[in-house]
Design goal:
By secondary structure, this protein is of the alpha+beta class. Helix content is 24%, strand content 30%. It contains 11 helices and 15 strands. It has helices spanning 41-44, 55-59, 67-72, 77-86, 93-101, 106-117, 121-130, 137-145, 153-165, 190-199, 204-209; strands at 2-3, 8-13, 220-231, 237-248, 255-262, 269-276, 278-285, 290-296, 306-315, 324-329, 333-342, 350-356, 364-368, 376-384, 387-394. A 6-stranded mixed beta sheet has the order 6-9-4-3-11-14, with helices on one face. The chain is elongated.
């Protein structure tokens, strides 16, 4: 039901064979760029990107409950816990992005406009082509995600036409373009690239973090992680806690981000406690069923220095029982310990561990694990490789 992400992520759900649920919509292909224009790297650099239709646009739709209030001002850290965790206030992906980077950015405004008009990237590409401008879905996707920006003459003409298509005042998008970027294909930073290998494109984590996903905890890596999951009498998760030992890859690291995702809309965080570290942000994104935590270490770390972050989250009852819990990791963990405690009145008849190479991949290396005297099961993995590591269980008739 819950899933966590920093250099790792976890989820317990009632649908273990469904995969992650974060897989992107089937990729679409728009009009191909004019190959006579060999200098237009906007299209060439993004030829491997996939158009993601209206997925992100829908997530950023401004008519979602609470979006207007959320967009008006960033969540103050003093109020974040109460606002997000206790009242369930919904913030859209674009609102979180705006709080982190400022609302007046080209990608944010483009996403908001696409969401408001309800247009898929395929449709926008077709409308541009009808006006004599060929811009692929991949390029449009890259623009709205901030991975590239319009710079060539043809791309800038497309921006002017986009303002008309999206009913924006003339110059709205043009005025938000930053300085010209260096030419040549760019490679995602190590943290982003490693996360994409495990999560895939357009995951809930990427949508929840917005621009911050590009530099997702790149200053730190996890060495040891200990998850404790508690299952209530109804078979639904009642809460979980995590202790994470982090090491700084560079001097100056002072915080880490965690994304916890929930499958069931009824399951929401109702209380958050940070026992090691300081909670600076707790934003629940109802539309994405995800909770974003930013925890500060309380000091700046020297290179290779370590710190411990511990937090616990109580969860409201979900509609269906949870049947597995998993964590993904983009880096090698020295050690990962997962414990699941069951209510003595609702014990599973079978438990097993498994590994996935990436989110959505079929489980492998499955092995039964016994139930302990404390009505618990645990998995201890040393030299835990990148991937998805989980425990699943079944209840009797």
């Amino acid at each position: 039901m819950s899933r966590r992400a920093d250099s790792d992520e976890t989820r317990a759900t009632a649908r273990p064979d469904r995969g992650d649920g974060d897989r992107p919509d089937p990729p679409g292909r728009g009009g191909r760029p004019d190959r006579d224009d060999r200098d237009d790297r906007d299209d060439r650099d993004d030829r491997d990107d996939r158009g993601w239709a209206a997925a992100a646009a829908d997530a950023a739709r401004p008519d979602q409950p609470g979006a207007a209030a959320a967009s008006a001002e960033p969540v103050r850290t003093e109020e974040a816990h109460i606002t997000a965790a206790r009242t369930g206030r919904a913030l859209t992906t674009s609102a979180l992005h705006a709080a982190a980077t400022g609302a007046d950015t080209f990608p944010a405004v483009l996403r908001e406009a696409l969401g408001r008009r309800g247009l898929s990237l395929e449709r926008v590409s077709e409308r541009l082509k009808a006006r004599g401008i060929t811009i692929s879905q991949a390029t449009l996707s890259s623009w709205q995600r901030g991975r590239s920006q319009p710079e060539r003459a043809r791309s800038l003409r497309a921006v002017d036409v986009l303002e008309e298509i999206l009913d924006l005042p003339a110059g709205t998008l043009r005025s938000l373009l930053g300085p010209r970027r260096p030419r040549g294909r760019t490679t995602p930073p190590g943290a982003e690239g490693a996360a994409l290998q495990i999560l895939g494109e357009d995951s809930v984590v990427e949508k929840a973090l917005g621009a911050r996903f590009r530099h997702f905890n790149q200053e730190t890596s996890s060495l040891m992680v200990h998850d404790i999951v508690r299952i209530g009498e109804s078979g639904t998760m009642s809460g979980f806690s995590t202790t994470n030992v982090l090491r700084a890859g560079r001097a100056g690291a002072d915080r880490a981000l965690f994304v916890l995702s929930f499958d069931d809309e009824a399951a929401e965080p109702v209380d958050i406690r940070v026992t090691c570290g300081r909670l600076a942000e707790a934003t629940y994104l109802k539309g994405l069923k995800s909770l974003v935590l930013e925890i500060h270490f309380g000091r700046k770390l020297a290179k290779l220095d370590t710190t411990v972050v511990s937090y616990a989250v109580e969860v409201s009852p979900s509609l269906t029982p949870a049947t597995h819990y998993e964590r993904w990791s983009r880096t090698n963990l020295h050690e990962y310990l997962q414990q699941v405690y069951f209510h003595p009145g609702t014990l599973p008849v079978d438990c097993h561990r498994y590994v996935r190479e990436k989110v959505g991949a079929p489980p492998r290396a499955q092995r039964r694990i016994p139930l302990g005297a404390a009505h618990d099961v645990h998995v201890l993995t040393s030299r835990c490789k990148p991937g998805v590591h989980g425990v699943a269980w079944e209840y009797g008739p």
